[in-house]
Design a protein that fits this description.
Layout: H1 11-25, H2 33-49, H3 61-69
C-alpha cells in the first residue's frame, strides 16, 4: 500500500525548491539550456557552501556536516 504524502513530509526539499524558484527563476530568462544549467550549478554550490543558516549555528550546510562528523 502507498502512503499519501504531504508537503510537510519532505519539508527540506520543499524549502529548497521554493527558495530556488524565488531566488533564481522569477524574472530570469535563460538564453540557452547550457546557461540555465551553469546558473543552476552555481546556485546549488551557493546553497551548500556559502549560505549561512542560523539553525546550523552560523555555518553553511557543508561546514555544519563537516564539523559534526569530526566530533
Amino acid at each position: 500500500m502507498f502512503k499519501k504524502y504531504f508537503a510537510m513530509d519532505n519539508g527540506a526539499m520543499e524549502n529548497f525548491f521554493g527558495r530556488l524558484k524565488v531566488e533564481m527563476f522569477y524574472g530570469e530568462k535563460f538564453e540557452t539550456v547550457d546557461k540555465f544549467v551553469h546558473r543552476l550549478k552555481e546556485y546549488i554550490d551557493y546553497w551548500n557552501n556559502e549560505r549561512i543558516s542560523l539553525k546550523q549555528k552560523g555555518m553553511s550546510p557543508v561546514q555544519y556536516r563537516t564539523h559534526y562528523h569530526t566530533i
